[in-house]
Known about the structure:
The protein is mainly α. It is 83% helix and 0% strand.
Amino acid sequence: xxxxxxxxxxxxxxxxxxxxxxxxxxxxxxxxxxxxxxxxxxxxxxxxxxxxxxxxxxxxxxxxxxxxxxxxxxxxxxxxxxxxxxxxxxxxxxxxxxxxxxxxxxxxxxxxxxxxxxxxxxxxxxxxxxxxxxxxxxxxxxxxxxxx
Length: 148
């Protein structure tokens, strides 16, 4: 389950990054996100307890990228109108809260034992999925509200 969450987070980041690319059509962007999501989900499923350190390392990289993308989204919103800023503030805070939850799940993965590994991975996947959904919604909202 944590692998799914991780995959979803990776996909969310990918979706956000793709959403910022104005050279692609929306259908091309969605197709890219679907492909990246499938790959990320498969990657998460492949980690065993013996590969915990590698899982944590890769997920930390994804979390760092997520936080970087959040900062870029915040900067884009900050350069918009006051009305958009006011509407975006709670949405951005919700994304930051989801990223914090994902960070907590990653800490749980670091501290997992062999007997708790599967449930910890599942929890990470769940948090990753929530974060991915939030990023997809935020990316769409920003593209609808802020002209390129």
